[in-house]
Amino acid sequence: MTHIKQQPLTKRSALAGARMGFNIFFVLAVAIFIGLTEEFDRAFLLAVQSWATPGLTELANTLNNIGSAPVIYGMAAVIAVALLLLSHKLLAINLAMLMGTAFLANLFVKHLMARPRPVPVFGEAPESFSFPSGHALMAACFFGFIGMLVTARMPDAWMRAVALTPFIALIAGIGLARIYQGVHYPTDVIGGFVLALALLMTFGPRDADGMRPA
Fold this sequence. Notes:
Elements: H1 11-33, H2 38-49, H3 54-66, H4 69-85, H5 89-113, H6 134-150, H7 157-180, H8 186-203
Helix pairs in contact: 1-8, 3-7, 4-5, 4-6, 5-6, 5-8, 6-7, 6-8
């Protein structure tokens, strides 16, 4: 059985990170609900959309497709099966719990907040509510999990940072694409990223056996 050595993320630090993430997400949700972010959202949205070019629009469409639920959950299913075949049952369970919880949390918060979508620049707005961004949440959860696995055996922090850069860039690109297309406010994307971080700290690979924090 191939052994995957996990990064030195302790139970205490993981739980502290998760708690901080959930607290930030709650504060952000309250700020959105009472209207404190409206000016920032509007200014940032217009700034990103001012970059519009045919090339960027095509790139945004590609990133949007990569971050879509069918693609993300399809890739997650493939990775989970691969982990099972490699006898990493706990890692497969963690991934399934991470993505399942993200899906349910996204639905719950969207209906709880019932935030209307901005007026889209390209095409029509999705029928679902705006906060948080499901694309940002799912992409950050999945690619964040994969990034943690890829860097698990790297002993040096600089090596892990270099290896994580493509994953971080892809996640950020998907979030910016949603803002660029006008289907999400910036705080929707930020909320998705923050919630994903909290869930990764809760369900992400942590110790030598790939077990989530208890």
